[in-house]
Amino acid sequence: MKKIFGLFLIAGILVISACGTGAKQETPADSTAVMETPVDSTVVVADTTAAPVQ
What we know:
Elements: H1 2-18
């Protein structure tokens, strides 16, 4: 009876380990990479082409 429970235990462990998502491969960080500054969409650029208001 202990052998049967042992087989079920091993089979259960194999089934659970087979259902995993696997290891995710991450790319290593490049220390020479240049960080880009994020674009701020709330910045308003002044219109310098129009005539000044008097």
